[in-house]
Amino acid sequence: MAAAFTSPLAEDLAEDVLARLVRYARIDTQSLAPRTGSPSTPGQLELARLLVEELRQIGLAEIALDANGYVMATLAGSGPTIGLIAHMDTSPDAPGAGVAPLVHRDYDGEPIVLPRGGTVLDPLAMPELALRAGHTIVTSSGDTLLGADDKAGVAEIMAAVAYLAAHPELPRPTVRVGFTPDEEIGLGASLFDIERFGAICAYTLDGSEPGELQDETFSAMAVKLVIDGVGVHPGTAKDRMVNAAVLAARVVEALPRERLTPESTAGREGFIHVHDLTGTVDQATVTLIVRDFDDALLASHVELVKRAAQEIVDSQPRAQLTVEVVHQYPNMRRFIVEHPEVVTRAEQAIREEGLEPLRTAIRGGTDGSRLSERGLPTPNIFTGGHEFHSPREWASLQEMAAAAATVVRLAAAWAD
Is 106 a catalytic residue? Predict the structure, then answer.
């Protein structure tokens, strides 16, 4: 038996949300670091141009695609101006070209065997999937990610504003829509024109579980270690060679393994994550991301990395170490807490959609982290996507429709 939607409104929005997700997912919008221009990849502009055309068809005003790949548009209303934001790019962590979405209606609760890549979505290993029997499930074909992160959010915003535009009798404030590039490489909000956007607050749709409302994220730093060694022919290397690759491996080995790693932490525990390790005898590079909800602990994690690297490299006097530490984004809570109505109105909208708000802290970041820091309070709302950044990524149509309906109700909450 097919699962019920949370409301008649969600049911009305469902097929539009589904068609949009499938359409957008087929466009390769993976971002790429390091970025040499904005957006970092041409596929993001392809999706941006499509969204501009669809916004025109919906009837929005002030539609613009700027030189950096950001899309903005306006749905006129009365009262304050609020923003809705989602990112167009997908993660570089899994293949993203040639996405072929599959729609599994009335999911029977059994493992979903995808036709490519040997990928199986096993509900025994995915508790969230096990709870979605009867839902319509959207997946990739198994050899790519789906891209629901964050094309589900894009689709939900588009379906919601299309519905509002088609029903001018419904209460709503002025709504500004924004679609950003390069969020997955930490740069989605870097060139976002907040003044031009003109909203008093905004909401990203970039979460997962139905009812999620997130006003707190990790604070984040990136650390890059560059080790210079001394390369000579291995046949004459005695007392002459200093192998930078070996030193880099020793640095990684010196970091905590039973604690302070992504695979050993949960909840509000921070971590040090070795993201990439490359090297030769002459030079090796270790890139890490460091996360914590507490800024003092975050700083201590960074110092742990620097100290471990320095001690290893100092053991070889002719080796050299260069350390680069980059602030990525802050915990958004310190900025949003000053604007409680931004959260309470979202809670109201979620409840009116028949869901209980789930106030959680994100073990990651959103565009809202940087936007909140820059003066635009921007909490995060659920999308119904799961298993992000992998070929196992999937989304529930019932939950995506609920997210789109929540946006419609959020407009009414701000019109009040």
Answer: no
Among this protein's residues, is 89 annotated catalytic? yes
Give which of 36, 27, 67, 65 is closest to 49, Cα–Cα: 65
Percentage of residues of the chain with pLDDT beyond 90: 95
Q: How would DSSP label each residue in 287-342?
A: EEEEEESSHHHHHHHHHHHHHHHHHHHHTSTT-EEEEEEEEEE--THHHHTT-HHH
- 218: phi then psi, degrees, rounded to nearest 5: -55, 155
From 3.40.1050.10, 3.40.630.10, 3.40.50.720, 3.20.20.20, which CATH number describes the 8-217+331-415 domain?
3.40.630.10
108 has pLDDT over 80? yes
- Which of 28, 89, 206, 399 is flagged as catalytic? 89
Fold classified for 219-328: Alpha-Beta Plaits (3.30.70)
What are residue 245's phi and psi, to 5 degrees? -65, -40
- Tell me the average pLDDT across 138-163: 98
Provide φ and ψ at 389, rounded to 5°: 70, 25
- What predicted TM-score, i.e. pTM, was given to this entire model? 0.92
Catalytic option among 183, 353, 367, 373: 183
Residue 215 to residue 233: CA distance in whole angstroms: 55
Average pLDDT over residues 368-386: 96
